[in-house]
Each structure stands twice: as structure tokens, then as C-alpha cells.
Design goal:
The protein has 349 residues and is an alpha/beta fold. It has two domains: 2-108 and 285-340, D-Maltodextrin-Binding Protein, domain 2, CATH 3.40.190; 120-242, D-Maltodextrin-Binding Protein, domain 2 (3-Layer(aba) Sandwich). Helix content is 40%, strand content 19%. The protein is built from 16 helices and 14 strands. The strands form three sheets. Strands 1, 2, 3, 4, 8, 9, 10, 11, 13 and 14 form a ten-stranded mixed beta sheet that branches. Strands 5-12 form a two-stranded parallel sheet.
Length: 349
């Protein structure tokens, strides 16, 4: 039954394509996964006899919808995603003849807060970080400009130390997890989200909610919160220059610099590969990409690309993706085996 199913898929693909298939892999989707996929695509083009894949952003949901538009060279091969595929996506795929999808977990998006190794201890919560760095905070039941100068003003249990944080810039791969899992979560915990929602504009509740969350993400512009668009070595250099600062790093980078950095807990949890991959550490989430199986063997290099992406050399704990902030998956070997076997995903749990 399985071989017949594959034959139908391949025939459908052949009917949808001209005699000469395109020779360049097309990838779209998540802005969070985009920097990782770009690193892989460029390395793939340099090390394999295939053209460099075309990698575009546009968002996880939009990417999955593009993947599900159908089979053929006018449709994409891979959809990057910072959230798991939904049943509605799968139903759309099936309706358009995309019968088999491979789900590939590339690792975890996890960030840590760290300061100078000889400095004070930090036990943070999303509410603490929001109240320290957000442009607007709750004061006497209303929104007000953030005027806190020291961490102890935010929470008396924190050090009496001037607030200065180096955070991922808006183009950095981990900015989204910082915005959503820290700033947005803290906005909700402090009640600021409710106040922002009350004054949000929009044609319906969804648009108002989206605009309120965007307002949550607005950070101070008075020098207390500083965007770092470069890699974590730049953040570390900034901390070295100002020992009182707190910086945001990928877990792997922190673990390679424990002689210089002291990590903060978040909501009482110590960040580690285990606490991030289990979901216990709150500032993390799994990252995926989804592959249209019917395109494997037809689009040149597609199988090689996805195998290369999840190889130890790229997605392992010592690879370039970890250096950029990806938390390597402890179950990466299982993912590699599933990719090698071209195993399609089963029903959603």
C-alpha cells in the first residue's frame, strides 16, 4: 500500500512539472528559523555540487500554507516553523494533493540571561525583565513610562545594581523567543497586557490582541536596554566592558564561557540542555522544518540538504548553529535516522 501511495505522489508531481525540473531548493517560513536555514544553505552551496537553496522568511504559518499549496516545481519544498504544524495545515495539504510530510525537529530556541562571573546573583522572572526593560509599565493601576534605574527597584530581591541589558537585536534569530517567552509573558504577569488591550485599536478582538502584544514588545530607549545585532561574542565584549550589565546568550555560548559568565535562573529553573529540551525552562521552544516528501528525488539535492541540516557538523552541540544560539537536540540521532529513512510524520498527538 505504501509503495502504491508513493507512486501516485510521484506521478502527480511529474504531471505537475515540465520536463526539466528546477534545480534550486526553495525554502520559506519562520523568521526565527531563517538565520539558521541561511547558515545551512550557504554552507550547503559551498560544500555540495548543488546550487545554494533559496531561503525566505514570511512567518511559520504562511510558510506551512505555501508548503501545502500542492505538488510541483511552482510550490516550495521546505517550510521552516517555530511552532508545530497544525491539523488544519495537514488537512489543507491533503486537499491539495500533498499526502506525505516529513517533520524535522532541528533543535531548540533557548536563551539565557548571564552576567559577569564575579558579579551578583540574578534570580529572574519574566515579570522582572519586563518591568526592567519595557517602555511602559504598570504604576498605581495605570500605564506609565518606565523610570526604574536599578534592578532592586523592580524587585527588592534583585541586586541594587544599575539596569543595563544587552538583548538580541530585531534581526537576530533569538529575538522572537525573547519577545514572546520573556517580554510578552512578563507583560501578561504584571497586568500591563490587560491595560494595553483596553486601549488597543483594531477591527476585531484578534487584531486588538495582536496590537496589544506588539505594544508589550516595545522596550526602553533610554540606554537601559541595548539591542545587539551581532553574534554573542559582541554581547560578551560589551559585558566585559561593563561588569554590571546583564546579557542574553544562547545556552551553548554560555556553556563555553562559564569562566567569564554567571547564569541567572528564570522562574526558579536553571537553564541546561535537559531543562530546555524538556520544556521545564520557560524561555525555550522546539524548532522545526517540514519537507514535502514527493519532492525528494525530484528536486536535486533536497535529500542531501535536509540530511546536512541535521548533521552533527551543522546542528550538533559544536556546530555553527549552536554558536548562533540553537540548543542542540539531545535526540538529534533519532532525527537523523528518520531523515535518512524519509519517514513521514504520523498523526498529531
Amino acid at each position: 500500500m505504501k509503495s502504491f501511495h508513493l507512486t501516485v505522489s510521484v506521478l502527480a508531481f511529474a504531471a505537475a512539472m515540465p520536463a526539466a525540473a528546477r534545480d534550486q531548493i526553495q525554502v520559506t517560513g519562520s523568521s526565527t528559523v531563517l538565520p539558521y536555514a541561511t547558515i545551512v544553505a550557504e554552507a550547503f552551496g559551498e560544500n555540495f555540487d548543488f546550487p545554494t537553496p533559496v531561503v525566505e522568511g514570511g512567518g511559520s504559518g504562511a510558510g506551512r500554507k505555501k508548503l501545502c499549496e500542492g505538488v510541483g516545481e511552482n510550490t516550495v519544498d521546505v517550510a521552516n516553523s517555530s511552532s508545530r504544524i497544525s491539523q488544519s495545515d495537514i488537512d489543507l495539504c491533503k486537499a491539495n494533493g500533498v499526502e506525505e510530510i516529513m517533520e524535522v525537529r532541528i533543535g531548540y530556541d533557548g536563551i539565557v540571561f548571564a552576567s559577569d562571573v564575579n558579579g551578583a546573583d540574578f534570580a529572574l522572572t519574566p515579570a522582572d525583565v519586563y518591568n526592567a526593560l519595557a517602555a511602559k509599565v504598570v504604576k498605581d493601576g495605570a500605564l506609565a513610562d518606565n523610570a526604574s534605574a536599578q534592578w532592586a527597584e523592580v524587585n527588592p530581591a534583585l541586586p541594587a545594581q544599575d539596569i543595563l541589558a544587552f538583548v538580541p537585536g530585531t534581526k537576530h534569530g533569538t529575538r522572537e523567543v525573547f519577545d514572546v517567552k520573556v517580554i510578552e509573558a512578563g507583560c501578561k504577569e504584571t497586568g500591563a497586557l490587560d491595560l494595553l488591550l483596553a486601549v488597543a485599536e483594531g477591527k476585531d478582538d484578534k487584531e486588538k490582541g495582536d496590537n496589544a502584544k506588539k505594544a508589550c514588545h516595545e522596550l526602553r530607549t533610554d540606554g537601559k536596554s541595548v539591542d545587539i545585532d551581532g553574534d554573542y561574542t559582541e554581547t560578551l565584549a560589551r559585558l566585559d566592558a561593563d561588569k554590571n550589565a546583564v546579557g542574553v546568550f544562547g545556552l551553548s555560548f554560555y556553556e563555553n564561557n562559564t569562566d567569564k559568565l554567571k547564569v541567572a535562573t528564570m522562574s526558579g529553573v536553571v537553564p541546561s540542555t535537559e531543562s530546555i529540551s524538556s520544556g521545564e525552562y520557560p524561555v525555550s521552544r522546539p524548532l522545526y522544518f517540514y519537507v514535502k516528501k514527493a519532492h525528494i528525488g525530484v528536486i536535486p539535492g533536497l535529500k542531501e540538504y535536509i540530511e546536512f541540516f541535521v548533521s552533527d557538523d551543522m546542528a550538533g552541540p559544536d556546530g555553527p548553529l549552536a554558536e548562533y544560539g540553537l540548543v542542540s537536540d539531545p535526540e538529534l540521532a533519532a532525527t537523523q535516522a528518520a531523515v535518512a529513512a524519509e519517514t513521514p510524520m504520523g498523526p498529531l498527538e
